[in-house]
Amino acid sequence: MTKISRRAALRALRCGLMATATLSAGFASAEGETVKIGYAVARTGANATGAGITTIPNYELWVKTVNDAGGLTMPDGSKRKIEVIEYDNRSSNGDLVRSIERLASQDKVDLILPPWSTGANLAVAPLFAKYGYPQLAVTAVTDKAPDFVKRWDRSFWMLGGGHDYANGLVELLSAALEEGKINNKVAVVSVADGFGIDLIKAARPAFKEAGFELVYDETYPLGTSDFAAIMSEVQNSEADSFVAFSYPPGSFGMTKTAQSIGYNPKVFYISVGGAFPIYPGIANGKPDGVMAIGGVDADSSAIKDYFASHTDSVGNPPDSWASAITYASLEMLEQAVGRAGLDHEALSKELSTGTFDTVVGEVKLEDNQLRDLFWVGQWQDGAFRAVSPAGKQGASAAVIPKPEW
Amino acid sequence: MLLTTLILGLVLGATYALLALGLTLQYGICRIMNLAYGELTLVAAFLLVVLFKSFGLPPLVALLLICPAGYAAGWCLYTVMMRPLVQRSGARGRLEVDSILATFGLLFLIQGGLLVVFGANFTSISYLDQGVSVLGVPVALNRLVALVICVVAGGALVAALNLTRWGLTIRAVAQSPGSAPLVGIDVNRVARQGFALGTSLAATGGASLAMYQTFSATDGVVFTMKALVIVIMGGVGNVAGALVAGVALGLVETVVATAIDPGLTLAATFAIFLAVLLWRPNGLFGRRS
Predict the structure, then answer these.
(1) Same domain? A173 vs A191
(2) What are the boundaries of the signal sequence (chain A) (predicted)?
(3) C-alpha to C-alpha distance for A334 and A147, rounded to whole angstroms
């Protein structure tokens, strides 16, 4: 009897899968010299949802847009098409690290695009640094970005940190408090996981300093699917403002529960997921007034064009938080390559010091970080509009109190 | 306050129990620990969304279609995939290991299929979202529907297993698959029925879940885990046990969330899970071996 050990079988399977991935991705290589761009994203596993909403569609849209226009423009004016090498990191950092190693050392790609999520970006940052690739960490929210920039000088952090989002929200609410639109009582819930913890830690002192009282302040475990108990307690508190530092499943669950029990606070804020294109559907067509993390300048023509082409190629509009920033990071890369070429050092320097024209407007990084961001957005007439910081160009005025569901 | 907690806990518990019924049945009758169980519920959930969004079928009507479709799918799955495993397994232990490995593979197959067909996005429908007052406590109507389905399906199952001749043969196969043929029972047929029925319940659970919860193609494992905890707590293969354990879990989570801290619900779940296992290793209603 032939014996095939499970390990051997798995190895064969993996090799086969990788070969297929490489083959199917290598279509563009037919003519001329190409620019090889590699990425390892979560096609399966727990991160597939996030990567599938924010990261993968934008990578694909960008590659298609660039290749349709003849390819990446090099400093000498020649055009080179993009050839993609993609691996599935199966939402595991181990697989992710192996894939990045492979992209850098075996496939020898010219550029590597980052994976989705803060944790994944941190996991591969040392590798990017080791091989010298610039890392445009878009979907990473971290307060430690200044430290990371010192440690890995070719890393770029483009989505702010927990403090920024918490402070942006508190600023918005304290303006409403001063105008007498809401009382000083706030009910806040947060998911007991990285992002929720970061935000609530930053929000507690900020709320206190602004004169707010947290009448309800509880956390819930990741994976909670039923919010009836929490929402009924929140409803019984006297808070005018409801704030949830939540992930998409929680944001959606709380919205549905609030609607079914008829909970109508003057401010209803949820975090990740509120800016997703499916949110109006989840809110039963009544998202108006709901605030969430993110926001775009819905009136800018660049954003309108971007939404239209995303809808065309992916089938649905992008989310209104990290998607546009992700696409902007790719445009930055494209323009930086046009000016500095594919040499990693020159390219990183250009990314760090150059000014770029993107879908979110003119972008210039400060200390390798994108700081000019919107922190809070609100659904108004079917669009998720940025409302904080109120002074930033393109921000709309927040509607408080929120209309009833 | 106490009443609110009680009602919310009962409703939550019923949705948990409904999710676990099929798994306990499949293991109890066929000795197949179906790790792809959560994925099967997801398939039903997606099916309901498609029927609702593309064909305009009201979810409760779609449920009536999905339930028998689940039975058919389970029937085929057993015939094609499980039967060969059962046939070559002599002792009981081998089938358990084989079925765990096989369904573990099936899990990824179905998950991959769902990702290809439906993408990675969150999916949700709005149906019967309005609140209904139950003794003054507002409860979402779609969760109440799940509670009713759970009570009806669970009750019917318990009654059928204990009171009918069909139930007797099923219990015979469950207790002693080796001796059941001696009294003229076609073990293969009964096991296939049991597996199909379990799949049908998984589909029902998934379809009713789609009415009240947002889900995505990668959520199956979460459902399997929840169902596994309930099944093991209630006593593997024991339908009444799964019902009681599900409701108990829902109650504990809600009480802890309101009286102590929502952050401790997960800890409470596993604390009572541990306690039950220490106190009764075979589950609340498990047979002593």
Answers:
(1) yes
(2) 1-30
(3) 26
Q: Which residues of chain B have pLDDT under 50?
A: none
- B129–chain A Cβ distance below 8 A for any pair: yes
Q: How confident is the model at residue A8 (pLDDT cuts 50, 70, 90)?
A: low
List the single residue in B with minimal CA-CA distance to A286: B126
What is this structure's pTM?
0.84
CATH code, domain with B32: 1.10.3470
List the domain range (segments joined by +) for residue B265.
Answer: 2-279
Nearest to A248, CA basis, from B120, B228, B261, B126: B120
User: Is B143 part of the contact surface with chain A (CB cutoff 8 Å)?
Assistant: yes
Pair (A347, A384) in one structural domain: no
Q: What gap in Å lies between CA A232 and CA A263, rounded to an integer?
A: 8
Does A262 sit within 8 Å of B131, measured CB to CB?
A: yes
Residue A260 contacts B, CB cutoff 8 Å? yes
pLDDT at A193: 83
Backbone angles phi, psi at A220, to 5 degrees: -135, 150
User: Quick check: A117 and A139 in contact, CB under 8 A?
Assistant: yes
How confident is the model over B221-258, as pLDDT tens digits? 889 999 999 999 998 888 889 999 999 999 998 999 88
Is residue B287 a part of any domain in this protein?
Answer: no
Cα A93 from Cα A47, distance rounded (Å): 11
**Tokens 């929140």 appear where?**
A234
The span from the CA of A404 to the CA of A264, in Å, is 6
Task: Kindly list the distances between the CA atom of residue B233 and the CA atoms of A323, B82, B248, in Å, as whole numbers in the listed order.
Answer: 43, 25, 10
Q: Work out the average pLDDT over A122-143.
A: 94
Report the alpha-carbon distance of residue B182 to residue B203 in Å, rounded.
34
- What pLDDT score was predicted for residue A87? 95
Residue from A43, A193, A230, A232 to probe the interface with B (highest B Cβ count within 10 Å): A232
- Same domain? For A305 and A290 the reply is no
Half-sphere exposure (Cβ direction) of A79: Cα atoms closer than 13 Å: 8
Q: Check CB contact of A191 with chain B, cutoff 8 Å.
A: no
